[in-house]
Predict the 3D structure of the following.
Amino acid sequence: MLDFAKGDGLIPVVIQDDQTLEVLMLGYMNQEAWEKTEREGRVTFYSRSKNRLWTKGEESGNFLKVVSAHIDCDQDTLLIKVVPAGPTCHTGARSCFQTAYNQNFLLQLERIIQNRYDEPSDESYVNRLRQRGLNKIAQKVGEEAVETVIAALAETEHDFINESSDLLFHLLVLLREKGLGLQTIAKNLESRHQ
């Protein structure tokens, strides 16, 4: 049970992208905002500047769909994992915390590839590759692996970065084609580390 008394009726709420794990923003909730969030499945804050409840996205349409909520050990802070409907920051940025790059872009790319599978389009490279079948996708990973090795041994750092990027992209497509994701690979690597 959340303890709203510690913060004079408000608790801090960390908003995290469920897929990429990127921290998107920090807000505050009172009991009423928390209940509305639970009931509607969209994040509602208590706006200290407006002195009222405020559902993120009520003006922009960039709602935060709740995936899960986690109460901290002191029961006075919340972590809410969400699927954002667009940029989270009022500036139009994906996050209110400006970092040099999205450290979890591979997870975001995995989501983009999944979206290409769910909503195929003739313009999509992923869709065209997928239509060629598992053998072609696996062959493409092999080609990119060889090109990465060649670039590492005989080409510029820029070439090596580009070939490594191509390899990772095609590996993500192959994982998706096999019904697997980065989470499965990460768990396997973690278990090997122990």
